Amino acid sequence: MLHAIQLFVPRMLAQQAPAHIVNTASLAGLLAAPQMGAYSVSKHAVVALSQTLHYELQEMNADVGVSVACPAQVQSNIAADLADNNNASGQLNDFLRSGIAAGMPAAQLAERMLAAVAAEQFWVFSHPDFKAEYLRRARELTDERSPQFQLTVCQ
Predict the structure, then answer these.
(1) Is 78 buried (19+), middle (13-18) or exposed (0-12) by CB count in 10 A?
(2) Using CA atoms, how far apart are residues 137 and 143, in angstroms rounded to an integer?
(3) What 3-state class would DSSP assign to 24?
(4) What is the value of pTM for the model shown?
(5) Could you tell me which residues come within 8 angstroms of residue 37 by beta carbon, excluding any fewer than 6 positions away?
(6) pLDDT over 60 (residue 86)
(7) Is the pLDDT of residue 2 over 80?
(8) 107-138 core/surface letters (b: 16 or more CB in 10 A; e: else)
(9) Is 148 helix (H, G, I), strand (E, B) or coil?
């Protein structure tokens, strides 16, 4: 993603025409969960990169918008190759597979992403029922409390 931004943003700016970048992170870009360290780190990085790019383009008064999609479960093949085993990781894999299979259709998320571009909206969420969890995390931050994991399942 970093390389794509380095390659395409200068071209977008040179065209001097409205443009928009949509980076796809994940719910894991905002909320961490046990046994998902590497995935969460990479998705937090996508959110941070997107915010930084948004700020930099704003400072330049560029006509290039930025959005970051932070979807929860979306129907895809992302979990198809997860390794099966008999430990907690196997339980997590089963949870992920079932959640993804029951998730939002990808076309519906694409519609939300396109609507965000049209509205020049930065955040794109798939499941608004996670907003309470984002608020809980923000309260932990502002109250300087240690984070507490809570399993939240979207509808």
Answers:
(1) middle
(2) 10
(3) strand
(4) 0.85
(5) none
(6) no
(7) yes
(8) eebeebbeebbeeeeeebbbbeebeebeeebe
(9) coil
- Cβ–Cβ < 8 Å for 65, 19: yes
Please give the structure tokens belonging to residue 45. Answer: 């990085």
The single residue listed with the structure tokens 């001097």 is 16
Dihedral of the CA atoms 32, 24, 152, 133 (nearest 10)? Answer: 80
Contact 124, 27 (CB under 8 A): no
CA pair distance 74, 47, nearest whole angstrom: 18
Q: How far apart are CA 52 and CA 46, in angstroms?
A: 10
Q: What is the dihedral of CA 130, 136, 142, 143, to 10 degrees?
A: -170
CA angle 106, 101, 148 (to 5 degrees): 95
* HSE value, Cβ hemisphere, 13 Å, CA-based, for 134: 14
Q: Residue 69 carries which DSSP code?
A: E
**Listed residue (32, 27, 14, 12) closest to 71, CA to CA:** 27
